[in-house]
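Try it yourself: sequence plus S-adenosylmethionine, in.
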Amino acid sequence: MPSKHGGVRVRRHCGGPLLCGRRYGDFLAALHRAGELPGGPNPTRLTKALRMPPLPEMPLPITPISGLTQVTDDELNKFAELIYTRTGIRVSPQKKMLLSNRLRRRLRQTGIANFSEYYNHLRRLPSNDAEWDAFLQEITTHETYLFRDEAQWAWFRESYLSECAARAAHTKRTALRVWSAACSTGDEPFTIATCIAAELTNASQWRIRILGTDIGVGALEQAKSGVFGQRAMRLVPDDLRTRFFTKAKEGEIWQAKPILSQMIVFRQHNLLEPLREEPFDLVFLKNVLIYFDADSKRTVLNHVRAAIAPGGLLVAGAAEGVGDYLKDFNRLQPWLYRKPA
Ligand SMILES: C[S@@+](CC[C@H](N)C(=O)[O-])C[C@H]1O[C@@H](n2cnc3c(N)ncnc32)[C@H](O)[C@@H]1O
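Structure, out:
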């Protein structure tokens, strides 16, 4: 039977497994979570376990979807409105083909015959229904990797964390709260944790809380596994990779060590809603507002403003265009803003 876990489909077909996933680490983590394979959390054992004995041929239950090419303009508008209301993301008419391809995958999975029927189905579902998660997972962009935007991480390590350490020596304040908003598969919060573990010599004595949030449940499931593939790991400095990640003997995948995972808590959160948490010293909000229009940006940034402690900092994507909405903040870099103390 086909099954879907964290964006990974597993089909036992034609005498063996056919694995389709966005990246190698995804499907190992997802297979483990799904209990599809024996072997515990060790990626090496999982890799070995993938060499399964041939299975008898099983017919795939493919629902015939006839005459489906692209959404009509009317369907595009309806889906765009639904997506905008739910996420703040604007889908432009140029994305018609992309949206159609992504929706077609939901039609295949649900067995629903056409786009309009799927739209009506989705609208009738409560917002906490699993199909909403699957839909959002499909239509949002999850591209991310560790140490993305290297200049920002150089600043974080060499400037921000070394100042924290120096201040702690005088004030004995050894608490640090960081929010990675729209963290996708967790690459950003794990980068934050890696830098903290590297720079704060007695990190285990600090009260560190890194909160990773995203609207996508599938992305968060993968984030919790702390497993990353070669592509996601390519910018991690060699010394940090060796110290804080375990490499599988077979396959180019890395498992984050507990010293990193224990600093991070993941939970689902929609940026259009206020975050009910104690204020943060530092918030990362990167590569998400580029998909939002002015109104939804304003809503998000008002919530983010409230989530930052006085004197706290916001790290934004360089192309995020947040400056117009944060006139009361001090702009320290094109991507770095300080909330007045
Ligand atoms: C391109 S990823 C960015 C990941 C990471 N911040 C980075 O810069 O590498 C964008 C993420 O934003 C999330 N997202 C989109 N709309 C959202 C919303 N309204 N609330 C929370 N997350 C959202 C998507 O699910 C996706 O994982």
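One thing you can check immediately is this: The chain has a mean pLDDT of 84.
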